[in-house]
User: What shape does this take?
Amino acid sequence: MKTKFLPLALLLFIGSSVFSQSFKLGIKGGANLGKISGQSFKDEYNLGYHIGAFATIGLGSKFAIQPEVVFNQVNTDTSSHFSDVTAFNHINNIKLHYLSIPIMLNYNLNKFITLQAGPQFGVLIDQQEDLLTNGGNAFKSGDFSVVGGIQLNLLRFRIYGRFVGGTLNINNLKTNSDTWKTSAIQLGVGIAL
Assistant: This one.
């Protein structure tokens, strides 16, 4: 009787080992050094944050897909041109909150270093109250970015750096033809659960 359960137990153990190697869930967070380009904004990166979750789905020993759901804060300062082209006279600092969905393709150089690249879809979920009060939605509700970076894998821990470059004009003002695009440098840590 025990000999019948041994192959079944061995099969379940092997199956769970293969599954655990090809699928992982985790959490992540860190700093955003973000900015919005355009003549209405200062050409400097400002500190924000990001926090979220990821899943890694293995596609063999070298490749994996890593979808994520991340809450991003983008902070920026306006330039002296901001009040010239908009109705916002007293706003110097702008905070935008995005729900971002990057879908990364991971390439494992070795067991410690992973290169990452892919698209990121962003949905604006919050902007400052005074931006809405003074002129409606100054920023478009969606953004699309291209992401590239490197990740260091230490057991279950991940340390990563990425560049996020926005490709869409997020300016939603009818009276301003200036092109506004987001960009960010992300530095963070994660842990696979």
